[in-house]
Inverse folding.
């Protein structure tokens, strides 16, 4: 093999390694792609949607630790978030953030009440939330522990969410869903300013 050929191969390998490291850095600290595996967030997200999740608002986690780099925002009610499922750390879930630590949640006549005040917001006003699971029974107020959040799927009839398994530690939150990038006919922003 000629010296020039070895030099070309080395340049290609270096370029691939640098591209890989850069991609992993961006995925770890900035933005990550996810694919929707189920219909629990229908009609907002449907099975097969591919979306980008922004890790910066809440602060990305430092790999192999439980620490976070400070974010530039705070969790907001009704954000669509991706988080590590509390009952199985190998799985990521996506749901809508409903309540924060210290707040009470109650589902009454299909509506969500936080601290006895009905949530009136266009993102959820046409949804009916069913009373299901140990944490979602009719006439039962649930207090969210400090450091945790309560999440619900938009497709309340078939969403496995906080009504069944409880609360999500804030530290399990990966990031906020920003936009759908695939399929082309579904491209849209998910974040409401």
């Amino acid at each position: 093999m000629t010296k020039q050929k070895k030099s070309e191969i080395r340049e290609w390998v270096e370029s691939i390694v640098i591209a890989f490291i850069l991609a992993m850095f961006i995925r770890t600290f900035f933005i990550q792609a996810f694919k929707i595996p189920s219909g629990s967030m229908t009609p907002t997200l449907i099975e097969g949607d591919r979306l980008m999740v922004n890790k910066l608002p809440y602060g990305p986690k430092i790999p192999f630790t439980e620490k976070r780099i400070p974010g530039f925002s705070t969790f907001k009610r009704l954000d669509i978030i991706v988080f590590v499922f509390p009952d199985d750390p190998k799985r990521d879930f996506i749901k809508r953030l409903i309540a924060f630590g210290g707040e009470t949640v109650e589902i009454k006549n299909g509506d969500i009440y936080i601290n006895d005040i009905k949530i009136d917001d266009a993102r959820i006003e046409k949804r009916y939330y069913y009373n299901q699971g140990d944490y979602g029974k009719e006439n039962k107020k649930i207090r969210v522990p400090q450091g945790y959040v309560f999440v619900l799927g938009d497709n309340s009839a078939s969403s496995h969410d906080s009504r069944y398994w409880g609360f999500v530690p804030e530290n399990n939150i990966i990031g906020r869903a920003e936009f759908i990038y695939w399929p082309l006919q579904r491209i849209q922003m998910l974040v409401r300013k």
Remarks:
- Residues 3-29 form the longest helix (27 residues).
